[in-house]
Amino acid sequence: MLPGVNDVTTDTQAAQVARLYYVQGLTTDAIARELGLSRPKVSRLLSHARRTGLVEIRIHDPQAQPQSLEAQLRATYPFLTPHVIRVPPGSSESVWLERVSVAAATLLGQTLRAGQTVGLAWGTTLDAVSRHLTPRHVPDLEFVQLNGSASARDFMSGFVTDTVTRFAGNYGARAHLFPVPTFFDDPLTKQAMWRERSVRHVLELQERADVLVYSVGAADAKLPSHVYVAGYLDPADQQTLAEQGVAGDIATVFYRADGTFGGIPMNARSSGPDLSLIARASQSICVVSGLGKVGALRGALAGGLMRTLVVDEPTAHALLHGLPG
Amino acid sequence: MLPGVNDVTTDTQAAQVARLYYVQGLTTDAIARELGLSRPKVSRLLSHARRTGLVEIRIHDPQAQPQSLEAQLRATYPFLTPHVIRVPPGSSESVWLERVSVAAATLLGQTLRAGQTVGLAWGTTLDAVSRHLTPRHVPDLEFVQLNGSASARDFMSGFVTDTVTRFAGNYGARAHLFPVPTFFDDPLTKQAMWRERSVRHVLELQERADVLVYSVGAADAKLPSHVYVAGYLDPADQQTLAEQGVAGDIATVFYRADGTFGGIPMNARSSGPDLSLIARASQSICVVSGLGKVGALRGALAGGLMRTLVVDEPTAHALLHGLPG
DNA sequence: CCGTCCCTTGAACGTCTGTTCATAACGGCT
DNA sequence: AGCCGTTATGAACAGACGTTCAAGGGACGG
Fold first, then answer.
1. Helices A69-76 + A313-321 axis angle, to 10
2. CATH fold of B5-52
3. Cβ of residue A36 near strand D, that is under 7 Å?
4. Residues B116-141: pLDDT tens digits?
5. CA-CA distance, B238 to B234, in Å (whole number)?
6. pTM score, whole prediction
7. Which one is the CATH code of B69-321: 3.30.930.10, 3.90.550.10, 3.40.50.10170, 3.40.50.1360?
8. Closest nucleotide to A47, Cα to C1'
9. Beta strands per DSSP E along chain A
10. Sugar-binding domain: which residues (chains A, B) (predicted)?
């Protein structure tokens, strides 16, 4: 059997084992005896069933406590469905990102429906999410990249492509890559490219996307957003952004602390979508982790730039009650 | 805490533990340390979360093998969605019923939607199903009994009421009982009762039911259908039915081996619904277990009297390929 | 204020489960 | 055919899990 090709015999047997285990409540031992298999084999089939998404486990939350961070977020931002992820006390930000991306991956798996188009940004956060997706086949699903990843200076070749491909592959979906530079040097070149049919096709897919998935970027995050460290912006660019009061970015399109984004020159050079696309989207999932992103997140929320937020508990707390100390 | 009243604190904590366990994949030990609880307490919360339906586990079946019994059933009865439940080789029919009712209870939990009305028959099979339901709150759900259970000879008082109440209680739904005799002695009495407003209310609910749940009855089942042993039918009645080629019943309304049910005098005395109600229903779940029910099941299938069937594997096999020996 | 009942708690136990590792079976290639 | 790399298998182990049970704590009534 080739890797990646799913064996229908194994899947059938795994489903049968999973039913006996999870529905009928038998032990692996009893299942092994009943089906004439060895117990380790049953255990392996069970792992297979879980890993390949053949078994889906969802948690139905009771209504949140009124004093919870989620309730406070809902009260402050009425358009928002927040998911605040608890982390172990005293843990590092890399643990927070791990927890948040696992939760976001699970949420995405429960959200996607057949026939939808999903707009996808890229970066450190979404890469982490992509590594925790539960495999599932969703018919007629399409992923479209929201901002370009082909940069003259992109020494981490494959990083972005891998992320998008991992999402698409996980759901048996088509991936539409966006092979343009993340930032153009000349806005006119961007305008010219935007008239190209191949680019227009991607832009149309972005327009009619049912679900958007992205994070917010911030220059001062402890785990820095990819775009700020990979050499996409030269020092002069970064200084210009700071002078204009830029608080963060979504898909390499910048916005200010109050959530506005008009009249920021750099955006004319960015390959990312106009943020009104983000604001208009009926379903948009924003995944955020790390105290360094608090400012960027507050700005995005002020601008109504997300409908669903997955965030770790310390970051959510800092957002609402300020940073400790 | 009063029994039956769910403690919101416990539920919240249980949901949190369940998320850490099932979504984040931590061990009970790690969860205990993180939340400052003892490991047994975490284990108990986890059980609580599963038992109360806070955690939902569903198995996504890969498409069935072409030579499987399910595929054969689908080919023979194109209107049917079959669920064939495997049982241990050499096991007794009571084990089959156990397996089938667990599977049926799980299926029902995945089927019901807010606002629906569910028509419910009663008997040995549905009683077994009622004992395996996963608790879940479904808003605005109503259960309505399909056939009467108040019989002058009903010495097993409470049996039927308990079944229906168990279903309703499990989903936080309202139960509409049907307090008329299972069989009237005089058809005219039935007609008179059918003009009563209380009865008409039940009949209207039956008419607009979204989902029907029932089994098929057969006189010769090894685990005999309740109606044939509880003294509802006297020997003369039973002989009359046999003479008219009756193959089985659904909610104490009889049909022949070819699935027709017109002109069976006994049905004029039965409190159950006209079988055209069953045939018309968009969703109808029939739960069948035991070789004795093969004939009754074959008749019901011939008449198109179900859309979904949950049946054990030996019974399904006997249906398609005849009884062994 | 004390006794009783009942529920909750966590240490300890025995079972169940995932994984490891040595061996066997398989399939491709020369 | 014969070799070799790869995959599948089940006995054995270590760890994780659910449950039991004796002790502790709170509510209620005497």
1. 50
2. Arc Repressor Mutant, subunit A (1.10.10)
3. no
4. 999 999 999 999 999 999 888 899 99
5. 6
6. 0.83
7. 3.40.50.1360
8. C18
9. 55-59, 81-85, 117-120, 142-145, 174-176, 211-214, 246-250, 253-256, 283-288, 308-312
10. 65-320
